[in-house]
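Lab notebook page, bench 4
Experiment: in silico fold of construct C2
Operator: M.H.
Input chain length: 169 residues
Purpose: comparison with the prior construct
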Amino acid sequence: MVKIELCNAEKEMFQSIREQRINAYYEYGNLLPEKHWNALKKSLSSNVDEQEGVEIIVATVLGKIVGSVALFPAKINAYGDLIDELDYPEIRMLAVESDYRGQGIASALISECINRTKEKGFDAIGLHTGEFMKNAISIYERIGFKRLPKFDFEPANDGIIVKAYQMKI
């Protein structure tokens, strides 16, 4: 197991984090219709994570950024008009470089989000993930996230569902 260090992202890291997200999600480019993939890339590289209260957390190994996640606060418009504001924080845009997968980095980032959410006094944390992201869903369910279908949405009107999950903490 590698030694993973977690810290808050500095503003000068944002552009490289966004590029890393796209690289981490690139494997889905061939699975998705082009319109959906382009919308996903636009979302991953947008500055939506610069809203007030959003925490961008990076995972480093030997000083190299190998993963990141954005923790959105409760009551924020994280998905535009696609869903209502939620009463609990939300994990978004979890990304781990392909060469570093299977080493506990995603779990460490998720655990950090859960801990920060607990520290803020919330009793739940949520996330949304594309139904095509089988490995991510497996990790989330193993950690204890449960489906919350009433907050599912279909961002590109192409039959591909973004599934909602929540975990009571």
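Observations: Residues 5-168 form a domain with the Aminopeptidase fold (CATH 3.40.630.30). Helices lie at 14-25, 34-45, 105-119, 134-143.
Next step: discuss at group meeting.
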